[in-house]
Structures are given as C-alpha cells and as structure tokens.
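Hi everyone, sorry if this is the wrong subforum. Our group has a chain we'd like a structural model of before ordering constructs, and none of us has done structure prediction before. Sequence below.
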Amino acid sequence: MRVTGAIAPGTAAAERFGSFGEGSVIAFPTATLYGEAQIHIGTGTMVSTWCTLAAGYSPTQTTVPPRALVIGDRSVIGMRSGIVAHESVVIGDDVWFGQEIYVTDANHGYQDPHTPPGLQLGQHEPVVIGDGTWIGHGSVILPGTNIGKHVVVAAGSVVRGDIPDRAVIGGVPARIIRRHEPGVGWVRPDGTGDVTPELPTVRPEDLARLADMDDDEISRLDEPPGR
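Answer:
Right subforum, don't worry. Here is the predicted structure as tokens:
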C-alpha cells in the first residue's frame, strides 16, 4: 500500500512555520525540516518530495533570526533540494528550482589548522534569489550570492557573487553567458554579437494602418527615409 500526504495550510505541521501561505504545500516524504518557526513560505508555493528546509544548526538552536529562510509566492522547489539558512536566505516570487538544488548562507572555516573545519562555524553571508529566476538541475548556490530577477542558471552550476537581472549564467564557477540589454536584446558579456535581437513593439494602430495599405505602399516600407 502506498501512502501519500503533504503539509498544507491548516495542518498541525504548517502551524509550526513562521508563516505558511494559502495554496502552498510541502510534499511527503520530506528529508529534513527544522527551525520551522524561522521559515516563511508564501502563497501557491510547492516544495517537492525529499527536500530539506532548515533554519539554524539544529532544532534546539535559539539564536536563529526570526526570518532566516523566506520563500516567496508561486515558487517551486524541486525534488531532493536542500535550503539551509543560518542568517538569511530569501527566495523571491515565481522562482523555479530543478531537482537536487542546494542553497546555503553558511560555511565552515579552515583558519585554525588545529581545529577540524566542521567545527569552525559561524561564517554566514546572506543569499538572495530574485523573482522569476530559474535554477537548473544540480546547481549549488553558495553563501554571499545575490542573484537578480529573471536569471537562468544552467544545470550543474556553482554560483557565488552578484548576478545582474536578466542574465543567463553557467559553469563552475558560474559566469555570465549572455545578458539582456534593453532596446538591443540578448547579448554576450562583452556586448558584441547580438544573440537574439529585441523585436520592435507593434501597436494595434500600426496593424490597422498596414491593413489599409495597397501593395505598392507596403513594398516601399523597406526603402530608406527620404527616397
């Protein structure tokens, strides 16, 4: 017999979260959930099976910020993904994760050669993932990363640093492959070689004017001005 279930608004499990929006769901089975009081989930968001959502080092830690992990509205967290927040991880609206994505704002140090790195704790840098971003399968988002809006992250990327809005990035470490230049379209990082030109805006009145033209008038549209 196969048993399925989910955490949804109104359930006892959802009440443990800092906030849990209408229409959101965390599918069973989960991997690890702790620090729920410091985790906030918006409306219409789906967290798939076998995901980890964690705020702090352990369920008993009392020094975790009240909004350590925030996931916005209508976002999707893919299967077997992990989000670990010790200080601040903010995921915007309409963000889509592929499967097996890992996001964390915490790191271990190695400055003291006599102490195991696993015991050198407390190195936290906030992470922000902007609205409308899509992160491909198996990517890792490291501490201190600030991803802009409508960014595409290629599968298997390791991301750190500031990523501008409307960029396509990929690699280890991830680099900008192309970006959107207003009025131009998608271009390469050096600004050369237009990749996909931005189409001009066609207004309804333009279409109406075109419909009234005869064949000769239409043929002259390609002529340079002044001829």
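For your construct planning: The CA atoms of residues 148 and 193 lie 23 Å apart. The longest strand covers residues 175-181.
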